[in-house]
Design goal:
homotetramer; 350 residues; Rossmann fold; Dihydrodipicolinate Reductase, domain 2; six-stranded parallel sheet; globular
Chain lengths: 350, 350, 350, 350
């Protein structure tokens, strides 16, 4: 049994930062060596500063850990970043410049041509982009990004269809949980008994990021998948779990049964299957007529499995279905941790 | 000032029945002459039997009215029906056979070729179908239907586009309130903090009914509008108000501004504009980026106005937008009352 | 028909400020002559600055009104204040010094010995305190306060019992709506599917304010009513409406029927009954076993009526009951407007 | 490692029945040998009949188990009963007559003088009542009951105070989750954005049962604890978790610190501490000002720990506090399973 690999968490006091802390606290490969936050918080014990909102107790060792300033270097070859977008760029690049692998949940670097935007089951090969990134930027470290919370579920559900039949286009409508907006996030007066049919920038993010994730690396750059997407985003009064309705047009026709089979067989490459955060099935299909539901299906695969239901013909395109994805695990902290695990499995971090 | 026209309410104790009672209690043209319900309730005072859930007091006169059995004849030339689908057919046909105009919210007769499925602003001319109905069935009365709660808003938002540009197809996803399922309806354990991505039969209803409502009467029959629809229905934790996202393909291209103009100019025929239940604008467009919202926009036009927002280009078709409609008023009782008013305005009921 | 009396609204853009604007927009006696807000907002049209959240449209005249700075003098003999507590003191005193009657919803002056804390039906006579206030402070105007949102309902339900039987003590637990915390107020992540058993300072406010409101003016000062109160406050996931359970001990025993009769007969003095905002009955008792409920009973008396239910014996004290009060109307803006009306009815403002 | 003890579940398809199945599926001592339900369900596979609502998958072995009729004998010395109250009496007595220990969540036998109403940490000694029960009724088996869902948390929080200082009386107001009403239970139209201040029979149950649980066995009968209780029950829009505010009067004065210490030291007898379902601490005290909260504190001790917060002086009695208890675990299935474990630990079942 080898020693655990020290890692740092940037932006450790926020909603996603807390999720990182929870996932890493009992991680089989990693151990938290540094918790960083804003200068006001630095120097104080994490347990005093954080407004801990996870429904499990904060481990005592971490409660007593002194918060570090968000400046490199910090202990740990990997820095998991939950920084706010408005401060993330300088801090994350600074850590990469000092040799860290920064796996970020922030949107800021996702569409940089030399930054891999990763869902390991889909595009583990995109990891190679960091060679170009390091060469171009002269960094000993690198920045890697996980996708937006509502992109992750969509990309995972489309990936097996894209591989098997080619996805030409899709109409998507999301019903997203409030945790996606962080804390304090959505005021309760805005969402109790209500729906907000708008999430700033979200539709564009999903349209762009999905094409990059499903794209192909050619000559050190990602060629986006030629998939047309039209997304409409809504906020609903759920706490966790983004549900999405999808109508999809395929390049090669497929029956619902064939689509279900493709989704169920989807596994990702061998090296990814063995990662601690990888679920047994990245996509599960539930054939009961009224599934998936956030309250019942969210915890599959410890929040890393996307649940698909209602796979049926579309009167206008090929297929329709509904998907559910855990927005703060598969769509944020869990996704980043899995990328960190891939760095270890590939021998880039030891 | 002429005397009020007596009307009956069938299924008066249920959710939609109560809404009928509330709308008719202060109606300028109608007065409630009979409240009918199941045999168990008949003979008892309405106020004792009904579990009144409207947030205004039940008028004393109606509380004291003895519930009638649901058998014709009852006082009133018009019978507004909120009957359950499983008992509606015989009862409604019985009343029509006895000379009543039955305006029904039940799904059971909606797709009958000789039953007008009406939204007066859109298809007041379909009223003529009842001549054929009466001839064919030999009834002195007639059955007329209002559409399903989620169809009403969609048809009203599409109608001005269809007239101006021709609607070829649309992808629709609904976020529907629990009142659409009646009482007791959706168990709270199923919907608190949750979404249910399935409403039995609803998608098919919307696809069929919209084409009939927007269709053309030819040779005494409705030729459905040639509009392709793909609908996905979801139940969310709102009390009232169905919100729908729409991506629409037009036969003649239109900019968002042209679409907004068409919606805003939409009024319906002169005779409909003067009906007491007709709102000043059947469709209002709100250009604020995060509207419409159920809690803020539902009461426009006393619940008879559909609010449209976020009209913008669609990456795959022509336009995208969001609509909100009051499911128990424009989508149920208010819709039926408005049809009853049209019968009066056209001189069919005096 | 006399001309309307011009009034100003301080803090006009917040939640309570908007409620003032809505109530005053169609008021029979008052008209809005000035809308004041922070310096950043001053000089811009109200309709552009305010994030209007009332479910009725903002009247065009007010949308176009230029926001004034919160410095006296402003047009209007009465200034209704919805200012934040941290800035209210200087501004409100400044307006009183300039001759305005400031009716404030802010907590800051409520317990000042020379400031009347008023619920007109209960303690219209406390208005006389302002003579002392003006003498002591040398102001031509005056400051008057309405109680905290959760105090108002409790005081109104206790007042008839106190008059008839003497209230000795009461145990109270509140279930308060999120609108009581203003906007943005309670984050949705804190309250969806949850209860927060704590509202800072609220319990102490209710205990203190109730005694003052029900107190007696003696020698120009309020002698608090000798009522022992133990209050526990909770925030629940309702939008509007504070519900409270009460166990009360009386100085003179009373049956539930006697208590109900006292509440139902309660009217307040003649001069208060005629105010536009005074409901026909300040307290209504609903004997149905499961009432009052926020969604069904909140709008009684246009939000100015407190609904009481479940009046029954207490195994430990005399009586138990449940009350419901509209926190942003009877507990905030409506309360202040009614006090303003009393100033007019008493001839202090013309 | 000894073989597991076979047990039966009566009423296995309902909400509490499913919770039994979930808790027993991985129980270290028990294994499910029979799943019984109504005659309509009998003979069919459990997985086909049950509308499984637990957020973890139903184990395949149980999904395939054929549902038995609810008639004795069934395999298993212990029968855990989640039967509806209207059918429970005959069935449960029938099983006891056939030799089974019936541990029931139903209210029907709780107040029978010879039926132990048990919370093992508090009154393990009440188990001796079954000798009298068997003698009086001539049964080889016995019926044992766990308390009502809202009683369990109250009794556990009061028990250490009662032991240390003597509880004289308490005023309690509950905020109860919808799962307490079973499925379909509370209609969503009744509870979304609402509070229902009434739960039929609940207040009386809590007042009676608490006194029995905290009572003393004398001469083969329970002498109820002389505690005066006044309870007011409310249903709020939470899924799981009953929160209660308590004002308590003690026979011997205690400071909040002394009360906290007594609660924290509370453990129950040695034999109970070792049961698989017994949490490390039956009562945890959280000193943060806004705790306990259902969404954050419910899962402590796998749902078997009651969380207490806000322990502070009461202006009218001695102490006030807030408690939170998991209504379907500590207040139902978990409670019954723990009683079953006690039967094993005491050697009554092998």
């Amino acid at each position: 049994m080898r020693a655990k690999i020290p890692v740092a968490v940037l932006g450790a006091t926020g909603t996603v930062g807390q999720k990182f802390v929870r996932l890493l606290a009992e991680h089989p490969w990693f151990e938290i060596a540094a918790l960083a936050a804003s200068d006001q918080s630095a120097g104080r014990p994490y347990g005093e500063v954080v407004r801990w909102r996870e429904p499990v107790p904060l481990p005592g060792r971490l409660a007593g850990m002194t918060i570090a300033r968000s400046t490199p270097p910090l202990p740990g070859r990997i820095a998991f970043s939950a920084l706010d977008a408005d401060v993330a760029q300088d801090i994350e690049q600074g850590f990469a410049r000092c040799g860290a692998f920064v796996v970020t949940n922030t949107r800021i670097h996702r569409m940089d041509p030399d930054v891999p935007l990763m869902i390991p089951e889909i595009n583990a090969g995109h990891l190679g982009l960091i060679e170009r990134q390091r060469a171009a930027r002269g960094w000993p470290g690198a920045v890697l990004a996980n996708p937006n919370c509502s992109t992750a579920g969509l990309a995972l559900a489309l990936a097996p269809l894209h591989t098997a039949f080619g996805v030409e286009k899709a109409f998507v409508t999301t019903l997203q949980a409030v945790s996606g907006a962080g804390y304090p996030g959505i005021p309760s007066l805005d969402i109790l008994g209500n729906v907000i049919p708008f999430i700033g920038g979200e539709e564009e993010k999903m349209e762009r990021e999905t094409a990059k994730i499903l794209g192909t690396v050619r000559d050190g750059a990602v060629e986006p998948a030629p998939i047309g997407l039209s997304v409409q985003c809504n906020r609903v009064a759920t706490v966790d779990g983004h549900l999405e309705t999808v109508s999809v047009g395929l390049r090669r026709r497929a029956t619902p049964e064939e689509a279900v089979a493709a989704m169920r067989e989807f596994r990702g490459p061998e090296i990814v299957r063995g990662l601690p955060s990888s679920p047994a099935a990245p996509v599960e299909v539930d054939l009961r007529p009224d599934r998936p539901q956030p309250r019942l299906d969210l915890e599959r695969g410890n929040g890393m499995t996307v649940t698909v239901g209602r796979v049926r013909p579309c009167p206008l395109l090929d297929l329709r279905f509904v998907l559910l994805s855990h927005n703060t695990i598969r769509g944020a902290a869990g996704a980043a941790v899995q990328i960190g695990e891939l760095l270890v499995a590939e021998g880039r971090v030891e």
